[in-house]
UniProtKB/TrEMBL annotation:
Residues 36-128 form the Lipocalin-like domain. It comes from Sinomicrobium weinanense. It comes from the Bacteria. Keywords: Signal. Pfam families: Lipocalin_4. This is Lipocalin family protein.
């Protein structure tokens, strides 16, 4: 009887530790991305010909807010408030997932669209996006890398 009780306790304890997880591994990428994400940090680095020429780091708080709301219907709302509320705005558009990238199509005022591709990962309730752009200008090669970290609300 002791062996059966011990096995039962081990089974229940083992089940509890394997059944509960902070990440839902069964969620599709679309389900994992859908929801409201609150920005926590921004890191921008600009390179010219491989050398760092500028770098900006920002930590978001109640005075500086960026929020991404990914809806299940493939639309998004990008809201920001910066400078103690002196700058505020909302962008909208559509998004899709392509492997490890989110493709954001921002809608402009006059039927214009701006397409932004960002690599993304989701781990432990944190969404990390990385936009990596390269451009040649005036004989130099410029690279801009923008990393954003969001927490799911």
């Amino acid at each position: 009887m002791k062996k059966i009780s011990l096995l039962l306790v081990l089974f229940i304890t083992g089940f509890a530790f394997t059944a509960c997880s902070s990440d839902d591994d069964s969620a599709s990428p679309e389900e994992a991305v859908a929801g409201v994400w609150d920005a926590k940090s921004y890191h921008f680095i600009r390179y010219r010909d491989g050398e760092t020429v500028s770098e900006v780091k920002t930590v978001y708080d109640e005075n500086n807010v960026v929020e991404m709301r990914f809806r299940e219907d493939g639309t998004f709302v990008h809201y920001f408030r910066e400078g103690n509320g002196t700058e505020e705005g909302t962008y909208t558009g559509t998004y899709s997932l392509d492997g490890g990238e989110i493709i954001l199509v921002y809608k402009g005022d006059s039927d214009s669209e701006d397409v932004v591709r960002v690599a993304y990962t989701i781990s432990g309730g944190t969404l990390t996006t990385v936009e990596d752009e390269v451009d040649a200008e005036g004989g130099s090669v410029y690279r801009e890398v923008t990393t954003m970290k969001y927490d799911k609300m």
